[in-house]
Amino acid sequence: MALNATELNAGIASETLTRVLVVDESKMQRKLVIALLKKWGFEIFEADSGKSALEICSRQSIDLVISDWVMPEMSGLDFCEKFRALPRERYGYFILLTSKSEKDDIAKGLDVGADDFLSKPVNSTELRSRIQAGRRVLDMEKQVHAQNAKTTAALAELQRVYEELNKDLLEAEKLQRSLIPESYSQHANVEISNIFKSSGHVGGDLVGHFNIDQDRMGIYSLDVSGHGVSSALLTIRLAGYLSPFNKEQNIAFYKSNSDEFLVKDPAEIARHLNELMLRDMSTELYFTLAYADVNLRTGECAMVQAGHPHPLIFNAHHGITLLGTGGPPIGMIDGMIYETFQHHLVPNDKLLLHSDGLTECEDPDGALLDEDGLSKILMRNAQSNGPELLNDILWDLADHAQGENFGDDVSAIMLEFARDKK
């Protein structure tokens, strides 16, 4: 449908298309095109050659170029190619004026960067349509540019937040590691060693020990469900409940009528922790626990297993024994019943409490190490003791996983009873 005079003369300059450069060696041709453009509200620049047009483009942000194809010194094709090579923040739309109609010529123009073509002599209706098409392209480019700017700003903010979070996680990692006892310590008749390796900055595993009296010690290994910050926060709270520094705070103890600190039965400790989890903590997390009350002089042990891997007795001469029958995790169901079981350590026994990060460590094919695999690792390193043995376990675990980036937290605590000194 043909445009009437009023529609033809209506302004079509826009926020995205304001500055137009007309390039033609013919002054008459330039005047014809410029006269139309001025009616439509554009800011006009003109040049009689590609060279002078490039100088204008280096100084001005040109939105649209209308250039003749055939010009001396520098053709419209050459000018278009150089125009595209200029550093620009925004896209510039390029229309070639031509009498050429061969497909090869059109393809060549597109190859060097022309967006559209306009036949000579210029028809005002066709010119307007070409400019409208250019404006649509520039409008879309502006929208993409604005969206990219928003995306860039959002990514910058995310990076800032990530850096802050990473800094906080590093501090949280330091705090969590401060809850883990020294990797090796000696006590009356026993030696205590531990390993702790989280799968991220922070994890849900915790190991520790505390003195009950001069002849007894409590050692534990626990594993909070899930990973990351929420699990780590719960381990911090649980570390307080099993504090080695304050019997008032440690739920393993209670006061007698004479204000003497007495220790609870292991099953009672698990029951009390289950009650605290369900009564005082609004969380869907739960945890597993292995706890042992060890007489350092006689080797008598009272233990509880609450959903945790079996406590393991390892002796280079007598082999490996798994203890316990499982038991329910802590913090899942109210009123759960836990059982205390007994064991008697003999000289050179090693009592190992560990998280499922060891037995459930996967190889590249998804096969678990399992209890048999852990037993083989222990027997393979039967001559090692203390931290050396635990580090040997880590090395063999990494060999099984074919890398040190385990999919779960790995932790263990080992009590060596009356070990022969070489």
From TrEMBL:
Domain of life: Bacteria
Modified residues (4-aspartylphosphate): D68
Keywords recorded for this protein, A-Z: Coiled coil, Hydrolase, Phosphoprotein
Record-linked Pfam families: Response_reg (PF00072), SpoIIE (PF07228)
Domain Response regulatory: 19-135
Coiled coil: 148-178
SUPFAM superfamilies: CheY-like, PP2C-like
SMART domains linked to this entry: PP2C_SIG, REC
Protein name, entry field: Fused response regulator/phosphatase
Protein source organism: Paramylibacter ulvae
